[in-house]
Amino acid sequence: MNLAICVAIAPRAFLQIQVPRTERTQRQLFVMTGGTPPKRSPLWIGTHSGTFHCDEVVACFMLKNLPEYQNAEIFRSRDDKALREKCDIIVDVGGEYDHAKKWYDHHQKTFTETFKSVCPDVSEDFNVVRLSSAGLVYSHYGERVIQSILQREKGIQLSPENLKLAFIQIYRNFISELDAIDNGVPMFEGGEPVYKVSTHLSARIGKLNPSWQETGVDIEQRFQKAMEIAGREFVENVLEVACSWIAARDHVRAALEEAKNVYPTGEILVLKTFCPWKAHLADLEKEYNVEGVPKLVVFNDGTSYRVAGVPVTPSSFLGRKFLPTPWRGLRDDDLSEKAGIKDLVFVHHSGFIGGAKTEEAAMALAIKSIEWPEEQ
Known about the structure:
By secondary structure, the protein is of the alpha/beta class. The chain has twelve helices and twelve strands. The strands form three sheets. The chain has a five-stranded mixed sheet, sandwiched between helices. The protein is elongated, with a radius of gyration of 28 Å. This is MYG1 protein C27H6.8 isoform X1.
């Protein structure tokens, strides 16, 4: 059914225009007796109507963070002909992926693209999960989206090198999850999980769809709300990676580059500024071709100096080199006497970390631990 909108073209004179219901849901209907109608957006982003999902919600949000689509409106439909005639870019619908035409669907049987296949410079680790519409849009426009958000939120721009790092990290810890969930990729092979995670972003966005008991719901308003929620989390992730994660990586990089000046073998790293270091060190070891070499990290955690063992993997409880067994579980004077080092505070009973009052004491603890005979 079509509705008539009265648009004023002269005082008390009206032109009747027929507007499809699908368009009415995208724009407020105005009955005006004077003046001019609201300016229409020159561009349209198309996606499917009905139940929405996190991947196209995030895809639309990312596009609206690009200057050319900032004021674009969203047209939701499953009519491929209407979408292609009306829209400048289409995501998650249409049965075709064609970057030249700006069509980004992933549901067709022939679709096999991954982050690695679209962005060949990234690691082989990203060649497993097929992209969703979020991953497709991110692969093609993500770097520009990141810079746009950082310019708006913080007034900064990343160097090309750091932009590439942020681009990969944001895919790793935000977009890849959306791709995997939308494509039904299990987190592990074999058997059913012993519990279900129902509070992740995709689940929360899904719950914004009208329930089977709700009637008279404006699903287009729900879609806008979904974009706000998902968009806020995406922006927070971009800011965390660009303003915190990259800065931490720079600190760890500096420590790794100075390692042989600290101790000739490069087995002891000194972090001048405390920051999350385990995952960064694992990555940077590969970049510098020193995998497995660093054994201990010295840093000040804000209260005292620490000597921590480097784990075999960032999440492992097993270390490459822990502090000597005879010192474990001891504290203060007992520890200092046993180790022959002044100003020690403690060594954990498992040996993965120890503390000292001064940097000199922490360094002595680290050096003696490195030189301690291998324990069987």
